[in-house]
Amino acid sequence: MTRVVVILAAGRGTRLAAASSGRPKVLVPVGGRPLLARSLALPADEAVVVTGHDREAVEAFIAAGRWPHPVRTVFNERFATEGNARSLAVALAAIAPAADVLKLDGDLLVAPETVAALWSAGGSAALVDFRGPLDDEAMKAQVVDGCIVGLGKSLHEAQGESIGAEVLVASDRERVANALERALHDKPNAYYEDAYHRLLPSWTLRATAVTTPWAEVDTPDDLRAAEAISRSMERP
Question: What residue numbers bound the domain in which 14 lies?
Fold first, then answer.
Protein backbone atom coordinates (compact mmCIF):
# COMPACT_ATOMS: atom_id res chain seq x y z
CA MET A 1 0.00 0.00 0.00
CA THR A 2 1.30 3.46 -0.95
CA ARG A 3 1.78 5.83 1.97
CA VAL A 4 1.57 9.58 1.41
CA VAL A 5 2.39 12.26 3.97
CA VAL A 6 0.22 15.39 3.64
CA ILE A 7 1.52 18.56 5.31
CA LEU A 8 -0.87 21.49 5.73
CA ALA A 9 1.30 24.56 5.17
CA ALA A 10 -1.12 27.18 3.83
CA GLY A 11 -1.69 29.30 6.95
CA ARG A 12 -0.45 32.80 7.64
CA GLY A 13 0.94 32.11 11.11
CA THR A 14 0.00 35.58 12.36
CA ARG A 15 0.46 34.74 16.05
CA LEU A 16 4.06 33.70 15.39
CA ALA A 17 4.92 36.80 13.36
CA ALA A 18 7.07 38.33 16.10
CA ALA A 19 9.45 35.35 15.92
CA SER A 20 9.20 34.30 12.28
CA SER A 21 11.11 37.18 10.61
CA GLY A 22 8.47 37.23 7.90
CA ARG A 23 8.87 33.57 6.97
CA PRO A 24 5.96 31.16 6.61
CA LYS A 25 5.44 29.32 9.88
CA VAL A 26 6.56 25.97 8.45
CA LEU A 27 9.95 27.50 7.57
CA VAL A 28 10.69 28.79 11.08
CA PRO A 29 13.68 26.85 12.47
CA VAL A 30 13.13 24.67 15.50
CA GLY A 31 16.38 23.28 16.85
CA GLY A 32 18.14 24.50 13.72
CA ARG A 33 15.73 22.79 11.28
CA PRO A 34 12.48 24.17 9.86
CA LEU A 35 9.34 22.36 10.89
CA LEU A 36 8.70 21.50 7.25
CA ALA A 37 12.10 19.80 6.93
CA ARG A 38 11.34 17.66 9.97
CA SER A 39 8.00 16.56 8.53
CA LEU A 40 9.44 15.86 5.10
CA ALA A 41 12.07 13.59 6.66
CA LEU A 42 9.41 11.15 7.91
CA PRO A 43 9.27 7.81 6.07
CA ALA A 44 6.74 7.70 3.22
CA ASP A 45 6.43 6.91 -0.46
CA GLU A 46 5.57 10.52 -1.27
CA ALA A 47 4.87 13.84 0.42
CA VAL A 48 2.28 16.43 -0.62
CA VAL A 49 2.59 19.93 0.84
CA VAL A 50 -0.47 22.18 0.71
CA THR A 51 0.64 25.77 0.16
CA GLY A 52 -1.17 29.07 0.48
CA HIS A 53 0.39 32.11 2.16
CA ASP A 54 3.80 32.89 0.63
CA ARG A 55 3.68 29.76 -1.49
CA GLU A 56 6.79 30.86 -3.39
CA ALA A 57 8.98 30.65 -0.29
CA VAL A 58 7.68 27.19 0.58
CA GLU A 59 8.11 25.94 -2.98
CA ALA A 60 11.66 27.34 -3.18
CA PHE A 61 12.60 25.63 0.09
CA ILE A 62 11.30 22.30 -1.16
CA ALA A 63 13.03 22.68 -4.52
CA ALA A 64 16.37 23.39 -2.84
CA GLY A 65 16.23 20.40 -0.50
CA ARG A 66 17.12 16.73 -0.77
CA TRP A 67 14.31 14.56 0.54
CA PRO A 68 14.00 10.80 1.08
CA HIS A 69 10.98 10.56 -1.23
CA PRO A 70 9.28 12.61 -3.97
CA VAL A 71 7.71 15.87 -2.77
CA ARG A 72 5.12 17.92 -4.61
CA THR A 73 2.99 20.90 -3.72
CA VAL A 74 -0.66 21.71 -4.28
CA PHE A 75 -2.01 25.24 -3.88
CA ASN A 76 -5.05 26.04 -1.77
CA GLU A 77 -6.31 29.13 -3.54
CA ARG A 78 -8.90 29.72 -0.79
CA PHE A 79 -6.39 29.69 2.08
CA ALA A 80 -7.29 33.25 3.10
CA THR A 81 -11.06 32.80 3.12
CA GLU A 82 -11.73 29.22 4.26
CA GLY A 83 -10.65 26.98 7.12
CA ASN A 84 -8.05 24.26 7.07
CA ALA A 85 -10.70 21.76 5.99
CA ARG A 86 -10.18 23.20 2.50
CA SER A 87 -6.45 22.44 2.60
CA LEU A 88 -7.10 18.82 3.45
CA ALA A 89 -9.78 18.59 0.75
CA VAL A 90 -7.35 19.97 -1.84
CA ALA A 91 -4.71 17.45 -0.80
CA LEU A 92 -6.99 14.42 -0.86
CA ALA A 93 -8.21 15.35 -4.34
CA ALA A 94 -4.61 15.36 -5.61
CA ILE A 95 -3.63 11.90 -4.32
CA ALA A 96 -4.32 8.54 -5.93
CA PRO A 97 -7.41 6.94 -4.33
CA ALA A 98 -5.58 3.76 -3.32
CA ALA A 99 -3.06 5.54 -1.08
CA ASP A 100 -3.16 5.72 2.70
CA VAL A 101 -2.61 9.29 3.93
CA LEU A 102 -0.84 10.64 6.99
CA LYS A 103 -2.02 14.21 7.54
CA LEU A 104 0.19 16.51 9.62
CA ASP A 105 -0.47 20.08 10.64
CA GLY A 106 2.44 22.15 9.38
CA ASP A 107 3.10 23.65 12.82
CA LEU A 108 3.39 20.28 14.59
CA LEU A 109 6.64 19.04 16.12
CA VAL A 110 6.33 15.34 16.94
CA ALA A 111 8.77 12.49 17.38
CA PRO A 112 9.20 10.12 14.41
CA GLU A 113 8.57 7.09 16.62
CA THR A 114 5.20 8.51 17.60
CA VAL A 115 4.27 8.92 13.94
CA ALA A 116 5.36 5.33 13.33
CA ALA A 117 2.96 4.17 16.04
CA LEU A 118 0.14 6.03 14.27
CA TRP A 119 0.89 4.27 10.99
CA SER A 120 0.69 0.96 12.88
CA ALA A 121 -2.79 1.57 14.29
CA GLY A 122 -4.44 -0.78 11.82
CA GLY A 123 -6.92 1.70 10.36
CA SER A 124 -7.77 5.37 10.38
CA ALA A 125 -6.43 6.88 13.61
CA ALA A 126 -5.43 10.13 15.29
CA LEU A 127 -2.70 10.99 17.77
CA VAL A 128 -4.24 11.89 21.12
CA ASP A 129 -2.42 13.16 24.20
CA PHE A 130 -4.14 11.85 27.32
CA ARG A 131 -1.59 13.25 29.77
CA GLY A 132 -2.17 16.93 30.31
CA PRO A 133 -4.83 19.48 31.23
CA LEU A 134 -7.03 20.74 28.39
CA ASP A 135 -7.19 24.49 27.85
CA ASP A 136 -9.72 26.42 25.76
CA GLU A 137 -7.57 26.13 22.61
CA ALA A 138 -7.09 22.36 22.81
CA MET A 139 -8.78 20.26 20.13
CA LYS A 140 -10.54 18.00 22.60
CA ALA A 141 -11.14 14.32 21.92
CA GLN A 142 -13.78 12.15 23.54
CA VAL A 143 -12.50 8.57 23.54
CA VAL A 144 -14.42 5.38 24.34
CA ASP A 145 -12.83 1.93 24.16
CA GLY A 146 -9.87 3.27 22.20
CA CYS A 147 -11.94 5.05 19.54
CA ILE A 148 -12.68 8.75 19.16
CA VAL A 149 -16.40 9.53 19.46
CA GLY A 150 -16.21 13.33 19.57
CA LEU A 151 -13.86 16.12 18.46
CA GLY A 152 -14.04 19.85 19.10
CA LYS A 153 -12.61 22.75 21.05
CA SER A 154 -15.90 23.37 22.87
CA LEU A 155 -16.56 19.86 24.14
CA HIS A 156 -17.38 19.88 27.86
CA GLU A 157 -16.08 16.39 28.55
CA ALA A 158 -13.00 14.92 26.92
CA GLN A 159 -10.26 12.45 27.70
CA GLY A 160 -7.44 13.98 25.66
CA GLU A 161 -6.23 16.38 22.99
CA SER A 162 -6.02 15.56 19.30
CA ILE A 163 -2.65 17.03 18.37
CA GLY A 164 -2.97 17.41 14.59
CA ALA A 165 -1.83 14.11 13.08
CA GLU A 166 -4.10 11.47 11.59
CA VAL A 167 -3.85 8.48 9.30
CA LEU A 168 -6.71 8.20 6.82
CA VAL A 169 -6.72 4.79 5.19
CA ALA A 170 -7.64 4.57 1.52
CA SER A 171 -11.02 2.97 2.14
CA ASP A 172 -12.09 5.92 4.33
CA ARG A 173 -10.85 8.77 2.18
CA GLU A 174 -13.92 9.28 -0.02
CA ARG A 175 -16.25 9.63 2.94
CA VAL A 176 -13.81 12.02 4.62
CA ALA A 177 -13.56 14.11 1.43
CA ASN A 178 -17.35 14.31 1.21
CA ALA A 179 -17.61 15.31 4.86
CA LEU A 180 -15.03 18.06 4.32
CA GLU A 181 -17.11 19.55 1.51
CA ARG A 182 -20.28 19.42 3.60
CA ALA A 183 -18.53 21.09 6.54
CA LEU A 184 -17.18 23.86 4.32
CA HIS A 185 -20.58 24.39 2.71
CA ASP A 186 -22.14 24.91 6.13
CA LYS A 187 -19.23 26.91 7.61
CA PRO A 188 -16.53 28.24 5.26
CA ASN A 189 -13.98 28.55 8.09
CA ALA A 190 -14.46 24.90 9.12
CA TYR A 191 -11.67 22.88 10.64
CA TYR A 192 -11.04 19.42 9.23
CA GLU A 193 -11.94 18.16 12.72
CA ASP A 194 -15.47 19.50 12.13
CA ALA A 195 -15.75 17.06 9.23
CA TYR A 196 -14.30 14.21 11.27
CA HIS A 197 -16.77 14.92 14.07
CA ARG A 198 -19.71 14.63 11.67
CA LEU A 199 -18.53 11.18 10.60
CA LEU A 200 -17.81 9.73 14.03
CA PRO A 201 -21.22 8.19 14.71
CA SER A 202 -20.60 5.84 11.76
CA TRP A 203 -16.81 5.95 11.35
CA THR A 204 -14.10 4.22 13.34
CA LEU A 205 -11.26 6.64 14.16
CA ARG A 206 -8.87 5.02 16.58
CA ALA A 207 -6.99 7.01 19.23
CA THR A 208 -3.24 6.41 19.27
CA ALA A 209 -1.74 7.64 22.53
CA VAL A 210 1.07 10.18 22.41
CA THR A 211 3.83 9.09 24.79
CA THR A 212 6.60 11.51 23.72
CA PRO A 213 6.90 15.30 23.96
CA TRP A 214 5.34 17.33 21.15
CA ALA A 215 4.55 20.94 20.37
CA GLU A 216 2.13 22.97 18.29
CA VAL A 217 4.07 26.08 17.29
CA ASP A 218 1.56 28.93 17.17
CA THR A 219 3.25 31.63 19.27
CA PRO A 220 6.75 32.75 20.33
CA ASP A 221 6.20 30.95 23.66
CA ASP A 222 5.33 27.78 21.75
CA LEU A 223 8.51 28.18 19.73
CA ARG A 224 10.65 28.36 22.86
CA ALA A 225 8.98 25.22 24.21
CA ALA A 226 9.50 23.47 20.87
CA GLU A 227 13.21 24.33 20.93
CA ALA A 228 13.57 22.50 24.23
CA ILE A 229 11.59 19.52 22.94
CA SER A 230 13.69 19.31 19.79
CA ARG A 231 16.84 19.09 21.89
CA SER A 232 15.36 16.21 23.86
CA MET A 233 14.46 14.43 20.61
CA GLU A 234 18.00 14.66 19.33
CA ARG A 235 19.69 13.69 22.59
CA PRO A 236 21.27 10.20 22.40
Answer: 3-234
